[in-house]
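We now fix the convention by which a protein and its fold are recorded. The integers have meaning only within a learned vocabulary of local backbone shapes. A complete example follows; check for yourself that the lines match position by position.
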Amino acid sequence: MDVRPGGVWEFVMHGPDGVDYKNRIVYDEIVKPERLVYTHVSGPIFKATVDFTDQGDKTAVRVSMVFESAELRNRVATEFGAIEGLHDTLSRLGDQLATADRAEFVVTRVFDAPRDVVFRMWTEREHVMNWFGPKGCPISECTIDLRPGGAMHYAMRMPDGGEMWGKWIYREIVPPERLSFVSSFSDREQRVTRHPMAPGWPLETLSILTFMELDGKTTVTMQGVPLNASEDERATFTNGHASMQMGWTGTLDQLDEYLKKAE
């Protein structure tokens, strides 16, 4: 990526069909921080303009593309799903910006198992039931609707015999590479509730999991950040990093032990 007028950006997108799509763009205009103009010169040719408009503490991003013909524009939109794809791309940009926040919580663990196996541990009910949750708080109920917009809804049995409910609303599912979801505490009817022991906790947290494999081992990195939270809620989340680290360490210890048994 050579970001200057006349500079070139080359990248490869790995499609869900297993095909690698090579892309090459040439930058035409760069006006920091207001506008980018570039031409996509590989595959369908088009000129794109990206405008960044300051709206106080927010930024509006507008992307427009001009094709050589209306026929080509329509084919790219219908056959390649360009409109939906751009919405997905900008959604991921929002997720990336959120996790770059100062309140971000990160935990990483290496597991001695292939990533397709590790990914299934996080997404299949029969596996989740056997390891998920802090030590001493096993999962007693769980349903998983694994699709964007679907939910994992679960109950943890607490040491005092009570139950604590939670849910994940899936945003992105890219087996076996990436999983993102919005997590919250809930009740049995899946209604969002406050943290039962910390009323100042954010109602929603965005979590992004990435799975990277090297030499048969898988590194799982989880990034979490408050979503739509007040300053007080963000402060509560930041102050809770140490306890979250302890809780996730115990949870991932259980996943590590379960993976050894599952082999």
The CA atoms of residues 148 and 171 lie 5 Å apart.
